[in-house]
Amino acid sequence: MKKFIFSFLILFAAANSFAQTTRYQSKQFTLISFNYQISNDLKAKLTQFEQLFPETESRKADRIIGPAKEITWYLLKARLEKETGMYILPINSQGNKFKYDVYNFPSLSINSALKRGTSRNYMKVDIMVSSGITKKETGYGANSKNETNALDLKNNDLCIPSVTIELTLYNDKGILPIRKEIGTAVASEAWEMSEEVFTGIVNRKEYDRNRTNTLLGLTNAAITKLFNRL
Q1: 51 φ/ψ sector (left φ>0, alpha ψ -120 to 50, else beta)
Q2: Measured in whole angstroms, how far is the alpha carbon of residue 65 from the centre of its chain?
Q3: Mean pLDDT over all residues of the chain?
Q4: Better-predicted residue by pLDDT, 193 or 7
Q5: CA distance 30 to 88
Q6: DSSP string, 93-121
């Protein structure tokens, strides 16, 4: 009986894994909104490295958020296409039918997208980079062993950041999401504020995808947490 149950669980896990990889296979998605935020307390720590980033064309654009947002999108897009099989249209695929933010990403609600767009599927992405782990983020794949808030650290040059990614998927049938998942990753050790935090964003150095000591490494970990729920 135990052998039967064990075999059944293996088959169930395999079937579930197969379903996850085929659920979005070859489906086209159009991005309608990509919101990238850095909490005020962490942003204050990062601003000292602002000179590493190029000047922006728009006064409304942020020198740090712009490059971080762009490379994060292409990291997320590449992994979504590779690991789920979905196809994500270029961010400007809807042309002047869509509104765009100061970073040239689509910025409109699902209501507006349904009226103006021509896609069968849409997606919205919300990312928050913050110090430590907020109460809202607990239970969404966060690393519970590391809940120390950066404000509690005696050394002001240290912080324990987290990245939370919320992915919302829609189809052209209505405004209610067909899927909404959240993934959070918390740095496994405190960051000492330096330009190394931006490895892969402000330079051509390769960041370690398996470590959370850089903004991109931590973001990659959050994407993995998100995919485990997707």
Answers
A1: alpha
A2: 13
A3: 85
A4: 193
A5: 6
A6: TTGGGS-B-TTS-BB--HHHHHHH---SE
